[in-house]
TrEMBL record:
GO terms for molecular function: C-22 sterol desaturase (NADPH) activity; heme binding; iron ion binding; monooxygenase activity. The gene is LOC109483426. Pfam families: p450. It comes from the Eukaryota. PANTHER family: C-22 STEROL DESATURASE ERG5, CYTOCHROME P450 26. Keywords: Heme, Iron, Metal-binding, Oxidoreductase. It comes from Branchiostoma belcheri (Amphioxus). This is sterol 22-desaturase. Its EC number is 1.14.19.41. GO terms for biological process: retinoic acid catabolic process; sterol metabolic process. Heme binds at residue 376.
Length: 458
């Protein structure tokens, strides 16, 4: 299969372009260029070995990071070697500094944004992007700096493009607006109240100002804000696919924890195992990104086991090895009924054991992020944000979508989000007394914003 045909197949079929037959977990294919795509859960875990596989700098498979949107700096998520250790150490410290503020910031951002929505919020996915920005940016850059969520959204849209050497005939998009968004975001970063502290933090890891700024620009705006917004859309959409009884069960757990701890706190989040299981199942069935890009650092033989027995594959130095979390998280050797959405899957002792095979964050969920591994340094923060946001939305509010969300794995541009854009037909405050009890400072504004006639909706 030629490069152009392979690319077009991927463009039309998305993750289904390399659907496995489960007889062989390392499959030689062409998705715009020759490569191996790894689909089995155990086999995918082999590419986490940082000594055997290096990341493809500036690439997520067929998606390329535009260097002008990182100030020419290779982001931590795609860097290697000693520079990766410096980059990741910086981002781990940045995230650690923000971690304590995240629950409070999550509640404030969700509720303050809802107060502006009204009963028929339009462009709902962009509204969740604004929620994500409102959670992360104040905790990292300081609350006195006001980022424009629309500019952040423009930056996220412009930061990547389809791999330019695959199909020269692809029409280039007009970057005028996205570049304007980038300039705005970059200016806000450089004038933020914590910028000098962040630059000093970068220097403590051996990074100059330009390198530190480039890391903050991409890792915070694209990975943290954009990535979490994508997962919020998917998680919100999944709530619409479970029964009213299940929604109520999740609500009761969250309400009890919020009442006990007087709001959204780390302690409250720890007492929401059902919400956590729901979120983990969303991330299992709707992972993003769709593929991880690796290049063999040296010749190696990878051993693994499939349903048909032990296997091994020889990898050449420099060979592209792309791993698919989408198919790894649907491996029937690990997950029972892998194509079904089972939100209780990660509860109890069996659910705890399954976390070793949950690889959404470029590592096993049981692993901790370190400078010498691939695990996302923002995993715990991202989980806290998604859990907290969904807990608040499901506990106090009701909504009707224009159409039921669905996922086929074929939409390249939607990543882990539903194939159809999530649009809200109506939105209402479903439990005003509970909201007033737990978040009194937000109650009046939200109560006034949402149409009073809608408040009585069941």
């Amino acid at each position: 299969m030629g490069n152009a045909i392979g690319y077009l197949k991927w463009l039309g079929q998305g993750k289904q372009a390399f659907a496995p037959d489960r007889k062989e977990d390392f499959v030689e294919t062409n998705i715009g260029f020759p490569c191996r795509v790894v689909t089995g859960n155990k086999a995918v875990q082999s590419v986490f070995d940082i000594d055997l596989f290096k990341k493809e700098e500036f690439f997520f498979g067929l998606i390329e990071i535009r260097k002008e949107f990182t100030e020419g700096v290779c982001p931590s998520v795609t860097s290697n070697g000693k520079i990766h250790e410096k980059n990741k150490a910086l981002m781990m410290d940045v995230i650690a500094g923000a971690y304590e503020e995240i629950p409070t910031s999550t509640a404030d951002a969700v509720l303050s944004n809802i107060a502006t929505w009204g009963s028929t919020p339009t462009d709902f996915e962009s509204k969740l992007m604004a929620v994500s920005a409102g959670i992360f940016l104040p905790t990292i850059f300081g609350r006195s700096t006001r980022f424009n969520p629309e500019d952040v959204n423009l930056y996220v849209k412009g930061a990547t493009e389809l791999r330019s050497d695959i199909l020269a005939a692809v029409t280039r998009e007009d970057l005028t607006e996205t570049r304007r968004g980038m300039r705005s975001v970059l200016e806000k970063i450089k004038t933020s109240e914590r910028y000098s502290q962040l630059i000093d933090l970068g220097r403590s890891h051996g990074l100059d100002e330009a390198s530190t700024t480039g890391q903050l620009l991409f890792c915070v705006m694209f990975n943290a804000v954009g990535g979490t917004a994508t997962n919020l859309v998917a998680t919100f959409g999944r709530l619409d696919t479970i029964s009213a009884e299940d929604r109520q069960e999740l609500r009761e757990e969250a309400l009890a924890a919020l009442r006990k701890h007087g709001g959204l706190t780390r302690a409250a989040l720890e007492e929401m195992p059902k919400i956590e299981s729901f979120v983990l199942e969303v991330l299992r069935t709707c992972p993003s990104p769709g593929v991880w890009s690796h290049i063999a650092a040296r010749p190696t033989t990878v051993k693994y086991t499939t349903a048909s027995g032990p296997k091994e594959v020889n990898i050449k130095e420099g060979e592209r090895v792309y791993a698919s979390p989408y198919w790894a998280l649907r491996d029937p050797a690990v997950f029972d009924k892998p194509d079904d959405f089972v939100w209780r899957r990660f509860l109890g002792p069996e659910g705890e054991a399954l976390r070793e095979h949950h690889v959404t964050f470029h590592g096993r969920l049981t692993d901790s992020a370190a400078v010498n591994n691939h695990m996302c340094p923002g995993r715990d923060v991202a989980l806290s944000v998604i859990k907290g946001s969904i807990a608040i939305l499901n506990t106090f509010f009701g909504w009707e979508l224009q159409e039921r969300p669905f996922w086929t794995g074929t939409k390249v541009s939607r990543i882990g989000q539903p194939d159809n854009v999530v649009k809200v037909k109506s939105f209402w405050l479903q439990h005003p007394d509970d909201l007033k009890e737990i978040f009194p400072s937000h109650f009046e504004e939200i109560h006034d914003s949402l149409n009073s006639a809608v408040l009585q909706c069941p």
